[in-house]
Each structure stands twice: as structure tokens, then as C-alpha cells.
Amino acid sequence: MKLIFRNWIALVLLFYIAAVVPAFSQEKLVRGKVTDQKDKGVLPGVTVAVKGTTKRAATDPNGNYQISAGANDVLIFSFIGYGTKEVNVNTAAGSVLNVALSSGTNELDELVVVGYGTQKRKDVTGAVASVDKSRLDQLPNTNFAQALQGALPGVSVDQNSGGAEGNNNSIVIRGKNSITATNDPLIILDGIPYNGSISDINPPDIESIDILKDASASAIYGSRGSNGVILITTKKGSKGKAVISYDGFYGLQSFANLPDMLSPEEFYAFKRTREPNTAITTSEQAVYDSKVFPDWVDLATRMGSRTQHTLGVSGGSENSKYYVSATYLGVKGIALNDDFKRMSTRVNLEMNVTKWLTYGTNTQLSYNNRSGLAASFTGDYGAYRFNPLTTAYDASGNLTVYPWPDDVFFANPLATTLASNDDETYKVVSTNYLNVQLPFVKGLSYRLNTGVEYTNRDQSTYYGRNTRTGLKDNGNLSLGQTLQRNLLIENILNYNNTFGKHSISFTGLYSYQYDNIKGNSLDATGFPNDVLTYYQANVALSKTPGASYSKQTLVSQMGRINYTFNNKYLLTLTGRRDGFSGFGANKKYGFFPSVALGWNLSEEQFLRNVETISNLKFRLSYGSNGNQAVGTYRTLAKLSERSYVNGYATAPGYIPTSLANPDLGWETTNSLNAGIDFGLFKGRLTGSIDAYLSKTHDLLLKRQISPVHGVDTITQNIGKTANRGIELGLNSINIKSADFSWTTTANISLNRNKIEELYGNGKNDTLNTWFLGKPIDVNFDYIYGGVWQVGEDFSKSPQPNTKAGYAKVVDYNNDGKIDARDKTIIGSRQPDFSWGMGNNFTYKNFSLYVFAQGVVGTNRRNTFLADNVNSGVRYNTMRKNWWTPDNPTNEYYANDVNANIYGVPIFQSDSYLRVKDISLSYNLSARMLERLKLGRFKVYLNMRNLFTITKWTGLDPELNTQDAIPLQKEFILGLNIGL
Predict the structure, then answer these.
(1) Percent of the chain scored above 70 by pLDDT?
(2) What phi and psi values does residue 695 have, to the nearest 5 degrees?
């Protein structure tokens, strides 16, 4: 595999040379004036660009411009409220090229990726949203999910934890439909389904991201489309000379926030107060007396850094276009020893072999290195809660194996950094296609798509005797290798034609997809020494090998018809049939239809002369999608090994672990969507409003059955949920002049889901906190009622033996006692609404981009507000306003072992407003670029996660896991150069 990668890199370098060596065409300075075609008035602030390059210029207050271009180049003129115009330089009178623009908006003619093709935005009938180019081009993202967060209505990106790789995210489109199955959207990369990590996709290579949100738009992906579809399109070359570009940045990282834990002195006092009869251990007292305390969080963190360098070449001729890039990303996370490196190269090539045959490839090779284990922040050895009366290093300066010698249960939170760890991934993602224009029918074409995704990941970890794990086991080894191969073949038939006022297009699909995963593992302990680390499995005293294998196939047929009459009335009909090997024998195939209607109201005669309205379109759609959440062998009866002793020998034995279910299939979501697209004031204000209602049935849930079968549960298609919401997205051009402009993008989303049915018996499932008529994710527990105070009548308390300073639990059902029936729903994880707003200011060559996003109306349990310090006070806790006789607060109960015997939690609002990105950039002027013979030169400063407004007192309101690596704050300096 490594040899393949070396040969590929050599090929890419040769491609670079071949692209750059040809001589650049002779350039000249083109001047001219841009005017309004109707009233002949000059137009200041018009953008003038050389097509296929990064060269840009703008007209001055008198409408004049100048730009350097070759004789065969094409200039693109664009301005707000006017149609974009392309003009060949060779039509200029000498070096003068004057242009007149006509009123109108070009946004509606913008092509949008809709799956298996593109459509003009004005012809789209489904709910399709596109990510603002500013989120892709202006920000130094590690993965594409960072560009999505808060950027689009109805798209929620939650970060589960911090970390160097930054891939621990969950993306949900239009809320949750499923209770136990995945709610992750389907990702399509250059036309093929993508199964890898989001961090394997190189953000600098991304040209556009489009989101299919409603049933009509996503029905073309059938049994995988119910959670929405993310379409990622990478950059392509264009006709023109070779354009060389460099994009690079370097930044520093620090933690955005940390929980306010007790200091060592405060912990000492807390421990003596809480359990006065439990002595401080000898080692704790020695540390306290020495006043040399470890700051575990400080030791487990560091100043992080992130750097990325991308070199690209693009260009093309009449018959070929190419884009080639190579990128290096290196991240040193803020957690000690948390590193991530990615090296990737991409070749996107398209060639017109003949007038009727086109060949293309979009291929990326990447190498990811995740080697090294970060310091621990979670579990029993997590840095946040670790006993501060311990020692991190011994007298020789080495990490202690047992930081608390009196309690050898605890390992050093930094011990993981001593483990030998290699974690490398080699990945190939390649889309190759042939497009044939069939001559016998006008508008008919055939396309053959082939997609290959190959992933090879090797992981090796060895804990030596300098760690608790390694000392206990005399060396601890873990080896693992995973090989994943995904193959896709698609046969696509397209037909496009116009008959007078009628336009029709048809897309037909027959596809086959194959996915195969193999895994091998080896766990071993008992080594003579640590010298050879994970290269000595043969001498281990105990070895446990493991192997895994899975294979699944998907066969699909799809048809889609788009019909337009007079550019006003739109109709889309879609149907897809999927056959999946993982489905039960009686449910191998599913059919998913949809219909969508559109009405371009602004094309009607009675609105054509209304200058205020530049675009108005109504959309209505209904359809079905599936959630292909059935595991590969989940419908089959399975046995697990259970060996037994037969005399003096061990004999193999097996026990049933699941029953066969030939009727197990997909979850189905039926969705209704109504939307309005609008443009006002010559395109200065554009946006969309969508309202939707979804009903999901045949949910995958485990039903209790009699254990006489050897198992007590079986997974079945039962249960129903409902989901509804409203989305608003706005784009405004607030100010536009020759020197200054201000544009805004904003969105807001309201989503409500609820459980309509579980097991068909009309009962709730309190064990899993699932309640009929309530959201899927609710908080269910006792209600914290404050603190019992001196003078209250304890004889009437539902809590026996309570006293002043103890936690007060609300007797919810007023039966005079506290038991499980007093637990109730306390809000949910479903926000009232979420929002995002980006503002872009430009003044001459300076640009300022500010993006903020937030969530409103959620709450959850703050685990840091619980004194879970264990018996003997073995863990640290957060600083609180504890009740004492001298401080009779109602905020937090007393520091007493028995103060909260019911374990009543404290819930807090985790709503927040976060300034996510601030980016200040400077672009060299066109005149200076001309002198330096450059096409582009931009330097920028980006600040990420600068500050947050919230009432949450835990680690971070955005992170789903609070005992985790902190969220990082970043300051990045970057440079973009184009030749």
C-alpha cells in the first residue's frame, strides 16, 4: 500500500510539471467602462474576473476598470441586481473593452447539485440548501462539518468533544426521526456514497456543499435518504491557462473554557468536612504538607497548534480540464500527546475524447496519522476529577505509576502518553465516469459511474511497565487491522429536451453497491520485557486473537422526471426501488416514491412589472424515504461461543444470542414540505421559508419476549414518531458601493419531534426514558427543590430522617413519600430554536467576516454539579456554594455524605450564543497584483470560538460529553497566493 502511495505521489508531481511547463499566454492590460444597458448610467463596484483564474478587479465610482488578461481569456462581469455577462478579450477594440449589463438576477440560473445531476435554482422543486461560499473559502476548516455548523436552516452540527482531529461531530438534518437507529445523513462525495470519516475529506478541495432536506429531493437515494443527504462536490478545472495556487495557515490553540474545580487546599478542607472520621491518607498528608501540588489539567493540556499547506494547479483547454492538489495538515491538540496529521492528493480530470464521449475521474488519496494517545480526561483517571493531593512525577522526573500510593486503583492521568501507539490509515476514494451523447435521439445521453472507496487502518498499542496497565499485566499489547472496500457501479440514462414552452428531463438509474469489511485483532499480556513493544507478540504468555467479517450489497433502480411549462409551472416525479442484503427474507426490497410541484409566480404577467419582487416561487412536495438501519446480519439467528469443560478437556459450545426475523426491514419516513423562495429589491434580499411535517413508522425497537427461546428480546419494526418544523434562511446585500459593501446571511430553525407509538400497547418506556407524545430526548428524573432550611417542619417531609442542609426532592405526586413515581420530565435536549448569522464587510481591499451561532431552549443534567466523590472522597469536585449554618443558601446542599441520598440531579440551561468565527483579511489591489505578476494575494487572521455567552457552568454547552478534551480557541494567520 505504501508503495502505491509513493508511485501516486510521483505521478502527481509529473502532472504538476506537465501542467506548469507550457508557456503562459501573452497578457495585456484591458481597460473599459461598465454601464447600465437601459439608462446608460455608470456602475461602480462591478466585479470583473478572468474566467478560470483567481484574478479579480472592481469598477471605480466612475464605472472604470482595468485588469491583466490574455488575448484568449474570457472576462466575467457580475453585479448585484444585474445578470452576469461573459465577454471574450479578443473582442476588445485594442485594449479597451466596454460592457453594458442588463437588469436582472443571475442567482436563479446558478446550478445546484441535486443528486445524479444538476438543476438551475429556479427549476428546483425540493428543499435544497447550499452552504455559503464564505464558509468554505474564507475559513481554515479541518473538516467540512465546521463549515456547516450554524450555516444552514434545519442543519444541526453538535460537537461531542474537542480534539486534534475534530471529527467527533454528529450532523442531524431536520431533527431526529429514529429512536434507536442512526439519524446521520447520507454523504455523497462527487456522486458516490461516502462511508469514511469526515476528516478524510480535504476541505480546500471542496467546491460546494448542497443539502437535500425534504422527501422529494432525497427520495432519489431511497432507503438511505430519510435523514437527509449531504452532496459534496470537489473543485474542477476550467478552460484557460494553468493557474497555480497556494493556501496555507498556521495557528495557535488554547482551551475555550475549563470547569472550576477545587484547589488542593480546598479539596483537603472539603474532604475533612465531608468525612471527618475518614483519615487523610499518609501520602495525601505528605503532599499537602509539602505544598507541591500537581495541576492535573495543566499537566494534561498544552498550547496547541494547527498548520495546513495546499498547493494546487488547475486549467484546461477545449477538450480537457484538470484540477490537481496536494495538502498537508498537522495538528497538535491542546490535550497532551493528541496529534493528527493528514496528507492528501487529488486529481480531478475531464477529457472530451470525441464530440460524443467524455471521460472523467475524481480521485483522492490520503494518509492519516493518529498515532499517540492523549492524556486522559474521562473515567476514573480523568484529569478534571483526579485527586489533587497526589504526585505526577517521582524523584527522577518520571511519571508515577501510582500517583496515590495509598490507593493503587488509580493510574496516572498522563500514563496514556507513555504508551507506544501507532494509528495509520491509508485511503483511496475514486469516482470515474464515461459520458456518452447518444446520436440517434436529441438530448439523450448515457453515463457510467464507477466508485471505489478503499480504507486500510492499522492500530498498535503497547503499555509498558512504566504504566499501571503495563505493570499489572507485565506488558499489555493490542493490535488491530481493518480493511474496508466499497465498490459502486451506476448506469445512468439522461434525457433533456425542450419543445416550445415545454421542457422535460428524465434520469434513469440502475446501480450495484458492494461493501466489505474485514478485521483482525490480537490482545496479549505477559512479556519478558518492554524493549520490543508491539513487535513481540510471539513471546506473550496470554494471547487472544480475534477476527471479524461483514459483507453487504445494495441493488437499486431509480427514475426521475422533471417537467417545466413556460418556466412557470414545475413538476418532479421520483421513484426508487432498493434491494438490500441486510433486510429480512420477506422484505428484501422497498419502494420510495415522491412528487413535488413548483410555481414560479414571479414569471406571471401580473408580477413581471413589480420591481420590488425579483423572484417568487412556491414549492410543495410529498414523498417517502427509508432509513437503512438494519445491521448486516441482524435478521439472522445468531449463536455465540460458550465453551465448557468436558472431563479434562475444553469443548466448544454455543448459545443463541438472537432469533431470526425474516420480516425485519427499513424505517420509513413520509414527509410533506411546503416552501417559498423569494427575492426582493433586485436580489438585494433573497431567502426561503420552509415548513415540514414528517411521520416515521416501522421503527427498529427491541420487544421483550419469553426467555424460553434462550433470548429475552427481539428487534422488530414497531413504533412511530412525528417531526415538524419551520425554517427560514435569508441573504441580504445591505450596502454595496465602489469601496464598501456589507452582506448578511442568517437562518433560524424550529423543530419539534415526538414519539407517537412504541410497542403498540399505549405504554411508556420509563427505563429508556421514552414517553408517548414527548420528544425523543427528554430529561427524566427527580426535581431538585432546593435545600432544607433551619426552622422548617421536617415531620411533614416526604424524606425520612432529613435535616437542614439536605437536598430537597419534590414530591411530584404528593403521596407523602419519595420514590420512582416522583420522577418526571424536566425539559428536553430539543431546542426551542437554533440560529446562525454571518456578516461580511469589505472596504476597498480589506474584508471582515463575523459569524455567530447559537441554540436556545435546551437544558440537561450538569454532572459537574454532583458531588460524586465516592466513598473516602477519592475524586475532586467543582467549586460550589455549599449550604452551611452560616451560609443558609438554597442554591446547593451541604457538603455531607447523606445530603443527597436520592441522587437528585441539578439541571441547567445549556443554551448559548457563540462567536464562532472572526476573519480579517487583506487582498492586494489589482494594480499591485499586475506589478507582481500575481493573480491573487490575500493574508488573513482568523479567530475561532472567541467567546461564548451561556449560563452553563460545566465544561462547554456545545459539547455532548463534559468529561472530555476541552473545546479549543484558535488564532490563525493565513496566506493565499495565486499565479
Answers:
(1) 96
(2) -125, 125
